[in-house]
Amino acid sequence: MTTPELSTTAAVLSVLRRGDDDYADAARTLVGEGYPELVVRPRSAAEVAAAMHWAGESGMALTVRSAGHSMAGLSRATEGLLLDLRGMADIAVDPATRIARIGGGATWGEVAAALHPHGLGITAGDTAGVGVGGLTLGGGIGWMVRRYGLAIDSLVGAQVVTAAGEILEVSADVHPDLFWSVRGGGAGSGVVTRFDFRAQQVTEVVFGTIVLDPSDPVRLLTGWRDAQCGADERLTTVLSLMPAMGDRPGMAMVQVCFDGPEAEGQAAIDQLLRLAPVLSSDLSVRPYAEVLEDAHMPPGARVTATNTFLDLDAAAVAALGDLYAGGGTVVSVRSLGGAVARVPVGETAFAHRTAEAMAVALRFLPGEPGPDDAVIPGWQAVAEHGSGRYLNFSSAADESALAAAYPPATRERLAQIRAEHDPDGLLSARGAA
Ligand SMILES: Cc1cc2nc3c(=O)[nH]c(=O)nc-3n(C[C@H](O)[C@H](O)[C@H](O)COP(=O)(O)OP(=O)(O)OC[C@H]3O[C@@H](n4cnc5c(N)ncnc54)[C@H](O)[C@@H]3O)c2cc1C
User: How far is the CA of 109 from the centre of ligand 1 (A)?
Assistant: First the structure.
């Protein structure tokens, strides 16, 4: 490795080193502080290509970040060159075609705010601060997922900078392999400097949280399944069983989004309100742009999370109930089906389209990092009823997580694409399949 000096390349790039203003902010992600040798903040695809070339030539490890919400810490750099894409966050909307061209460093909160005046929105995640980059590269499970599918199902094109320095426009017709790969194949096939989505027409939605008595989790899970899985596709909900924490007792929460007139969603929502004694509810009609929330991690807080895709038959429900009863674990089920399942498996690199729900287990970790951090007691019994893994909700991105996330045929195709566009593995060092 050659020691990077301020070269011609660096002279035109915006570069930060330790001690510079903004270095710490650029290096910090949701999972903690980073300490790369250099931070480059590109303003164009050409600058992304130049920075990647610089990293490759000098033998520096390359880490790419957008909003830094990777639960597996994939955007936290501890060496080499960190490419901070957050300066590339332009959003251009064409109301006639509903095409939104979104910079690779934008957040979903910025997207929602830019689309709202046009009566448009994109079903993406639930959190304003999450990046368009990481969420889209993983799939994107949002509040209108049952009606419009995953975020990637609304993607119509992208601009990708490959490790070889090419700046490519990709779509179903041009570089279809790369287009397939950026729809769920994770980081590793290139740096996406622009995502082109066809937005959905959406103004207001019925949205809010119903808080319920959690004492009968099996009844809750069964009732939620019956209310949700066959429901109108405009209804997307998440049931979370929250354990007691400190002085706060356990509770169940159903987060609800109905993308339609209130009267048309009322019967389905009433069914949810009958799942268990209601402790509170704040359902109301709101602009879709306002339903994305901000996530706050207390300083030093750590989480471990895993998930699987499953149908909620009696055995799966019992295993989820046992997991919650074991204590200390947040157990969530997110509704899928609908439009997700109508896209053929294989059409995108996200391969888990047939299950009716995704189950997620999450624990807050005390103290210093330890070897058992990833262990969620009772999870294995749930995992036996599911298949696959959503890497975006996984705090592990090791070999076993990658093998769960990508079936062999998907992985093989990803490997071929990466061999073609990144033969030296510049981008594949960080959790790529
Ligand atoms: C509080 C919270 C709420 C969440 N809610 C949801 C949700 O509702 N639905 C959902 O589907 N997911 C959700 N997620 C998961 C989220 O999709 C992932 O954490 C995602 O990786 C975050 O993307 P990011 O761009 O913010 O992260 P980053 O950490 O910046 O990036 C994540 C990965 O993508 C790569 N990357 C990012 N941008 C680019 C780019 N433009 N080109 C190439 N590679 C890039 C990075 O190198 C890294 O490997 C949530 C996560 C958190 C922490």
Answer: 13
The predicted pLDDT at position 431 comes to 58
Q: Above 50 in pLDDT, residue 6?
A: no
Question: Exposed, middle or buried, 282 (CB in 10 Å: 0-12/13-18/19+)?
Answer: exposed
Domain end, chosen from 63, 86, 109, is at 86
Domain that holds residue 196: 91-201
Do 194 and 264 fall within a single domain? no
- Which of 201, 236, 260 finishes a domain? 201
Q: Is 175 exposed, middle or buried (0-12, 13-18, 19+ CB in 10 A)?
A: buried
Instruction: Give per-residue pLDDT as tens, 104-140.
Output: 999 999 999 999 999 999 999 899 999 999 999 999 9
The residue count of the chain comes to 433
Is this structure's pTM higher than 0.90?
yes
Ligand 1 binding site (Cβ under 6 Å of any ligand atom): 29-30, 64-71, 74-75, 85, 104, 125-127, 130-131, 133-135, 137-138, 140-142, 187, 191-192, 295, 392-393, 430
Residue 103 Cα to ligand 1 midpoint, Å, equals 14
